[in-house]
# Entry
Amino acid sequence: MILTPQEFSKAFDEIKQTSLTHSTCKMIIFVSSLNVDAICASKILSSLLKKNLIVFQLLPVVGYNDLKAKYQKIDDSISTIILIGCGSMVDLESFLEIDINDHVDTDPYNAPVTPDSSSNDQQQQQALRLTRKIYVIDGHRPWNLDNLFGSHMVTCFDDGSSAVELKGEEQAYSALVAIDSDAEDEDDDDDEEEEEQEELADTDADEDFEESIKTSRKRRLSSPNPGKKQRKSIIKQHEKTIEEYYNQGTSLTISAALQICYPC
# Structure
């Protein structure tokens, strides 16, 4: 999910709501210790959290391997993770080996609300409520598209440009996800059809019947499928869009310290 500067205050209110406690710590802040801007941002954020009486733990990290090692040691009760100066360019759910099912909570009073939980479908709301959220404040680019468009857990603070500039990439990403889902459904249908035919062949001793099944299979495999060819062409087009995005090279955009100042 992408957050524009106009939405930072709302996100901070959500962070306060899920992290405010009088006893235990429910927030971890990971800071890139080799990034001066990240260190400055962490100082500003620390002052802001102390002012609001929010208990937190600040952990410096040196590289992504250090981040992964420290993340995997945190307690399950931690509801808010903030990454400063790191996290924007990697698929966080995959890299940190996060199983989203471990953080789903159907209790509407305890779990943070995900972007899609505003749906009118109450069952869907409960399924999308998570016990943990990850917030990324990092000016390194390009954004990893899985963080922006493929995760309910990760929220990315942006300068507002990506929401406009990445419309094409978002469409390509969503299309590829939909195509993958459809392909899995088709594979399941094919497997079920083959199992049914094999069961019929086993229960019927007629050789002509078995031969007709084999002939039918050969025809199905040899006959061209225009739908699949068209789908391959669409996949290549969308993959090219994603590849060109990542091949633009890396850059450093907005200061993390400046982003922290928006909710102040």
In short: The beta strands are 2-3, 27-32, 57-61, 80-84, 133-137, 140-141, 154-157, 251-252.
